[in-house]
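Exercise 7b. Backbone tokens:
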């Protein structure tokens, strides 16, 4: 059975991606990051999700991106609220080079365990304008991965960066996940949650998530009334 390394944040998209990889028959190896994010509670969710879905191993990697700052998620910058989610402007919640850093760690993990399949929950439709969620970026990283590793030099194998949600709207992602029996009540997408984990409801991520559930004619099961 092929092994898959799956980037798992504890959010809606990465959880759906993990469930999708499982449905494809992969052995699951999850990797999450404690990178100084203000919504650090997402790691608690990631641990629960990994256990519930049945990953073989779950790595949580500490990286302190607060050393660089430059993002509302890692610096003393307010998270934007009630922003126009149709805007094409890159928001201040963008973390410089985050996916490049995360995928590089995932690549190293994959090479060590003998996996050539890396999964990421990137999405080009409802993605808040992040440049490292675009298909052309992922294609470029995949090309780099196949030039940079001993695994591809010593074998005929090639790394693949899988982004099964890349062309789906948030509503379509949720519909897919429901079909895979994803428990969305255990996921956290909010950039600025309360101490108890309750979502703020008005950051970009919350707005996109709420819109997706509304288009599926249901309330977000993670919101405790």
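Sequence design result:
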């Amino acid at each position: 059975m092929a092994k898959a390394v799956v980037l798992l944040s504890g959010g809606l998209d990465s959880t759906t991606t993990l469930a999708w990889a499982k449905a494809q028959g992969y052995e699951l190896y999850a990797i999450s990051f404690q990178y100084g994010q203000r919504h650090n509670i997402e790691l608690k969710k990631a641990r629960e999700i990994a256990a519930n879905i049945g990953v073989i191993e779950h790595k949580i990697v500490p990286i302190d991106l607060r050393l660089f700052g430059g993002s509302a998620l890692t610096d003393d910058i307010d998270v934007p609220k009630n922003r126009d989610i149709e805007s094409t402007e890159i928001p201040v919640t963008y973390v410089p080079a985050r996916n490049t850093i995360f995928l590089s760690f995932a690549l190293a993990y994959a090479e060590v365990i003998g996996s050539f399949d890396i999964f990421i929950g990137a999405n080009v439709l409802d993605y808040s304008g992040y440049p490292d969620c675009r298909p052309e970026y992922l294609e470029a990283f995949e090309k780099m991965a196949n030039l940079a590793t001993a695994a591809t030099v010593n074998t005929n194998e090639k790394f693949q960066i899988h982004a099964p949600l890349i062309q789906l709207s948030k509503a379509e992602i949720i519909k897919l996940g429901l079909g895979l029996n994803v428990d969305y009540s255990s996921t956290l997408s909010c950039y600025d949650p309360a101490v108890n984990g309750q979502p703020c409801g008005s950051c970009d991520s919350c707005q996109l998530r709420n819109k997706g559930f509304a288009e599926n004619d249901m309330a977000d099961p993670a919101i405790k009334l």
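Instructor comment: The CA atoms of residues 107 and 145 lie 7 Å apart. The chain has a mean pLDDT of 94.
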